[in-house]
């Protein structure tokens, strides 16, 4: 059984009660809200949300469709999607990195022996923004990482205007990131991932 099935915080938040059909048989309904790791089959939905969220701001996406499929094939356990009634509304995609700080190579590589989780992208569908979903999803993602023995810390890079958001999520700024994309400069941020033994004992990880 995968680790996902044993994580209580990845189970649906609210489940609709099964409804009865006219013939008296109960029919299944989709969960009202569900968190789960993504699969390559989710790549198109992921890219649609990401493209709308980033192209209007920076003119480019952190991950293109082939890169999304690449990471979801290599390390789906380092992703997390928020689904409402079966529709993806927010997601995070990460990969493992094996150096102290991020470099240009971190944009495309997954280092299976690494202990740092590089968070490539967090995006929320435009119809549900300004509802705190980004913060909630990041909190659940960090809880998820605490059940992965490989993860010791989370790293990300963001533009300056997003630093306060990630600080509220518990990240600290490490300084300017050496990675550049076109004319964009970034701040590198870090969050420690603690409590592996405790989480495994108490959540079935």
UniProtKB/TrEMBL annotation:
Entry EC number(s): 2.3.1.87
GO molecular function, one term: aralkylamine N-acetyltransferase activity
Residue span, N-acetyltransferase domain: 33-194
UniProt xrefs under SUPFAM superfamilies: Acyl-CoA N-acyltransferases (Nat)
Pathway: Aromatic compound metabolism; melatonin biosynthesis; melatonin from serotonin: step 1/2
One example of a Gene Ontology biological process annotation: melatonin biosynthetic process
Cell location: Cytoplasm
Main localization, broad class: cytoplasm
Family matches, as CDD domains: NAT_SF
Pfam families cross-referenced by the UniProt entry: Acetyltransf_1 (PF00583)
InterPro entries to which the protein is assigned, alphabetical: Acyl_CoA_acyltransferase, GNAT_dom, SNAT-like
Record key words, sorted: Acyltransferase, Biological rhythms, Cytoplasm, Melatonin biosynthesis, Phosphoprotein, Transferase
CC annotations in GO: cytoplasm
Catalysis: reaction(s): a 2-arylethylamine + acetyl-CoA = an N-acetyl-2-arylethylamine + CoA + H(+)
Stated family: Belongs to the acetyltransferase family. AANAT subfamily.
PANTHER family per UniProt: SEROTONIN N-ACETYLTRANSFERASE
Name assigned to this protein: Serotonin N-acetyltransferase
Protein species of origin: Regulus satrapa (Golden-crowned kinglet)
């Amino acid at each position: 059984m995968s680790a996902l099935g044993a994580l209580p915080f990845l189970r649906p938040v609210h489940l609709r009660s099964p409804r009865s059909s006219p013939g008296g048989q109960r029919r299944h309904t989709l969960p009202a809200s569900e968190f789960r790791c993504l699969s390559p089959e989710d790549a198109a939905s992921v890219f649609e949300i990401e493209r709308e969220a980033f192209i209007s701001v920076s003119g480019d996406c952190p991950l293109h469709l082939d890169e999304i499929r690449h990471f979801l094939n290599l390390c789906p356990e380092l992703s997390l999607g928020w689904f409402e009634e079966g529709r993806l509304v927010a997601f995070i995609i990460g990969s493992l990195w094996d150096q102290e700080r991020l470099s240009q190579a971190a944009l495309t590589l997954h280092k299976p022996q690494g202990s740092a989780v590089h968070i490539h992208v967090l995006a929320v569908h435009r119809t549900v923004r300004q509802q705190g979903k980004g913060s909630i999803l990041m909190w659940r993602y960090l809880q998820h990482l605490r059940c992965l023995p490989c993860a010791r810390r989370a790293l990300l890079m963001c533009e300056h205007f997003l630093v306060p958001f990630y600080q509220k999520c518990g990240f600290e700024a490490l300084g300017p990131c050496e990675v550049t994309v076109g004319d964009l400069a970034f701040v590198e941020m870090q969050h420690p991932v603690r409590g592996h033994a405790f989480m495994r004992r108490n959540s079935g990880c």
